[in-house]
Amino acid sequence: MPFSTPLPRTAREVRLASVPAGLPAPENFAVVEAPLAAPGAGQVIVRNRYFLVFPGLRTLIGGEVEGVPLPALSSGDALFGPAVGEVVAAGDGSPLRPGDTVTHLQGWRDHAVVDAAHCTPVGDTLPDPVAHLAQGASAYGALTRLARVRTGDTVLVTGAAGAVGTLAGPIARLLGAGRVIGTTRSPEKAGRLTAELGYDTVLLAGSRVSFAAQLAEAAPEGIDVLLDTVGGEQLAAAVGAARQGARFALVGALDGQLSARRAGGSAPVEIDSFRIVVKGLSLRGYSGTDHPDVEEEWNGRFGAWLRSGEIIFPHTRIPGIDRAPQALQELIEGRHFGAVVVEV
């Protein structure tokens, strides 16, 4: 088990110090030193370069994980999530070697011992390794497998300034959409979505004008496709604005998931089921595990689009693991544009 450089004996990691009564705040977390074991057979030590801050942590911390393919987090547990890093040591039998760049799910720490089988080597498909933390695969899979965007479609993307939405609009356009409408709560973000990402118009959720009225004005002939990350009144209004045979793909439910009154695992909403019937709508939830072929296809197209300049990866880099708990709070509060990535 050769090591190219002396290995650290400890790793810094973010732990859940206490379970919050409502939304998590920085005081609910602690950055601690933890022992770092040598890699066993088939394992590697990865020095993380970047890890993703994602809203799903709210659900894991809240403990409402029924149907979620990840475990709940209890007090004292280390957080986890998508990360990109460099292999610095490899145990016997590992197919990976020091110097390899990989993705894995042991983020929220500076070094991690990971089973090599749970690492994915990063080649040169994407021009920048951090782009492997983009959440575009969900948007791409939902728009190609469920909603199946057609040439000329009017597409509505809710939560358009988030990690999924900032890629969903441009993807819909590249797939042939004729008009792309987004939603956000921030006038500043609305301006960026139209100026930088090609959204035709952006509706302001939570404004004095009802969302349904804004949508009716923006799409007087209705919408063909919904890519929904929010739920709530925006989903209800989209049902009312749907054209005959419209296709709805739901990839998130932030309206309930990030509510201080809930625990992160529910998002009830009242929608008009009669309209669903008479308009012949399809309404399906997207899960990447149901479409294992999407990831490779997405990476190939994403890499080509990035290199051609047809798409960009909007994200905010937060320097330092000590700022990670604050970054999670800022994500929940909607302060950032695009994905939020901690640079270790």
UniProtKB/TrEMBL annotation:
What Pfam families does the record tag this protein with? ADH_N_2, ADH_zinc_N
Gene3D superfamilies of this UniProt entry? Answer: Medium-chain alcohol dehydrogenases, catalytic domain, NAD(P)-binding Rossmann-like Domain
In terms of superkingdom, the source organism counts as: Bacteria
- Residue ranges of every copy of the Enoyl reductase (ER) domain listed in the record: 22-342
- Supply the CDD domains for this chain: PGDH
How is this protein named in the record?
NADP-dependent oxidoreductase
Organism of this sequence:
Streptomyces cyaneofuscatus
